[in-house]
Design a protein that fits this description.
Layout lengths: L3 H11 L4 E6 L2 E7 L2 E5 L8 H7 L4 E5 L2 E10 L6 E6 L9 H5 L11 E16 L12 E17 L19 H8 L3 H13 L3 E7 L2 E6 L10
Parallel strand pairs: 3-4, 4-7, 5-7
Antiparallel strand pairs: 1-2, 2-3, 5-6, 7-8, 9-10
Organism: Botrimarina mediterranea
Protein name: DUF8091 domain-containing protein
Pfam families: DUF8091
Length: 229
């Protein structure tokens, strides 16, 4: 079921002069503004990669991948019922989370007709007790009933592989491994490993060798350092 968050973001990006839920060939497009097709994807990018590749053959496409920076959780006593508790979730999203999805999008982005935007959003998440027949209900067993947009914060825009360096705010040496990349991102090592894969496949870095057991990378476009004779 489509959430309020998805509906609100479609309306936000369509603007006053756009349309939502428009048919283009065999695809239904979330929003259309002029000659720009807009797809809002709160779930994983892997689910729309084939669709986006096809659309980019003839159209300009904007993929909107929101990242939930903050989430206020409201629990109800029943679907559509009374509020029993409210709290802020301790989990916070960060822009570098985009790399976790981009590993499945490396054959789609970059493309001359494709742009990705990543807005940081604050949402209200409504939960209610889960009374599914196939599982035993517990007091803390809640399911998400809806998500609603509270606010839209900073937005990052990516049109080419080099733009992905916005997700790496820290400094890197000319040759770096994923531990150093993790430090520069302010992210865990496992995510830096996924980032390195995405950056390599999209043409933003290249592997240049190993240091011990770790792969070394350098940014594409920078002159390679000559080895001493």
């Amino acid at each position: 079921m489509e959430t309020s968050l998805h509906q609100q973001l479609k309306a936000h990006y369509a603007g006053d002069d756009g349309e939502v839920e428009v048919r283009r060939g065999r695809y239904r497009i979330d929003a259309v503004r002029g000659d720009l097709l807009i797809e809002v994807q709160h779930a994983g990018l892997a689910a729309i990669r084939d669709k986006i590749r096809t659309l980019c053959e003839e159209h300009r496409v904007l993929v909107v991948k929101p990242i939930v920076a903050r989430r206020r959780i409201i629990k109800l006593d029943r679907p559509g019922g009374e509020i029993v508790s409210q709290r802020w979730s301790p989990k916070r999203g960060a822009t570098y989370d985009l790399f976790d999805d981009l590993v499945h999008f490396t054959r789609t982005f970059p493309h001359p007709r494709l742009t990705i935007e990543t807005p940081l959003v604050e949402v209200v998440e409504v939960r209610c007790p889960g009374h599914g027949r196939k599982r035993r209900w517990r007091a803390n067993d809640h399911v998400v009933e809806d998500q609603r947009l509270s606010s839209v914060g900073a937005v990052m825009r990516f049109t080419k592989a080099a733009d992905l360096w916005q997700l790496v705010p820290g400094k890197l040496p000319k040759e770096f491994d994923t531990a150093e990349l993790a430090t520069a991102m302010g992210a865990p090592r496992w995510l830096a490993q996924r980032a390195a894969y995405a950056l390599r496949e999209m043409g933003a870095v290249r592997q240049i060798g190993k240091r011990g057991g770790a792969w070394l990378y350098e940014r594409v476009g920078r002159p390679r350092r000559r080895k001493a004779a």
